[in-house]
Amino acid sequence: MRRFYILIAILGVAFVSLPINAGQEDNRLDLLFANLAKSTSSGDAKKIEHIIWRIWSENKNASAERVLALGVKSMNSGALNAALQAFDEVVKMAPNFAEGWNKRATIFYLLQDYSSSVKDIAQTLRLEPRHFGALSGLGLINTALGRHGAAVKAFEEAIQIHPYMVGARHHIKVLKEILKGEET
């Protein structure tokens, strides 16, 4: 736990001293991902994860960041079509902003438009290969489509980046049981 507080103190300095780029291009992420991979408890990992998500949602284009926030608010209230419109706009305004693509992929998943979701996940991962959320989403899509082996692979890639993704670990366990049953 002491190591975590030292990390937070270092990151506090890093937040002040490093230039803020935008989302996945932010210099602070390398240290955060290194510490996420080395985290020794789910509590520490969750705190680092929260900071990563916050940074991923930042963008130099203030309008894109504002529209992303509106889309998230719409998504959280169940207004999926309004959220989709917002995330469409974000992707047009800031095509190199990974989180815009990831949020739109999430909406497509919720609308069961898996093909569109997979395309947006691929773009998210091109822009931010460490996007454990996108990898987990890919695992969920493959699970929904009955592609159990591909789902396990996606979830395993996610936990290589974020070792304390409880949901991903649970899905891997369940899917491996399904795969074992399919082999017999």
Question: What is the secondary structure topology, with strand pairs?
Answer:
Blueprint: H1 2-17, H2 28-38, H3 42-56, H4 62-76, H5 80-93, H6 98-110, H7 114-127, H8 132-144, H9 148-161, H10 166-183
Helix pairs in contact: 1-2, 2-3, 4-5, 4-6, 5-6, 6-7, 6-8, 7-8, 8-9, 9-10
How would you characterize this protein structure?
The chain is mainly alpha-helical. The chain has 2 domains: 2-56, no CATH class; 95-183, Serine Threonine Protein Phosphatase 5, Tetratricopeptide repeat. The chain contains 10 helices and no strands. The radius of gyration is 17 Å and the shape is globular. It starts with a helix and ends with a helix. Mean pLDDT is 89; it is low at 4-21.
Q: Kindly estimate the percentage of residues that lie in beta strands according to DSSP.
A: under 5%
Fourth-level CATH superfamily of the largest domain: Tetratricopeptide repeat domain
Q: Provide mean pLDDT, rounded.
A: 89
Helix content: over 70%
**Domain module tally:** 2
Record field, number of beta strands? 0
Shape by Cα distribution: globular
For the sheet with most strands, the description reads: none
CATH architectural group of the largest domain: Alpha Horseshoe
| Count, helices | 10
How far is the first residue's CA from the last residue's CA?
Answer: 45 Å
Query: Structural class from helices and strands?
Result: mainly alpha
Written as H for each helix and E for each strand, in order along the chain, the element string is HHHHHHHHHH
Name of the CATH class of the largest domain: Mainly Alpha
Give the low-confidence spans: 4-21
What value does the Rg take, in angstroms?
A: 17 Å
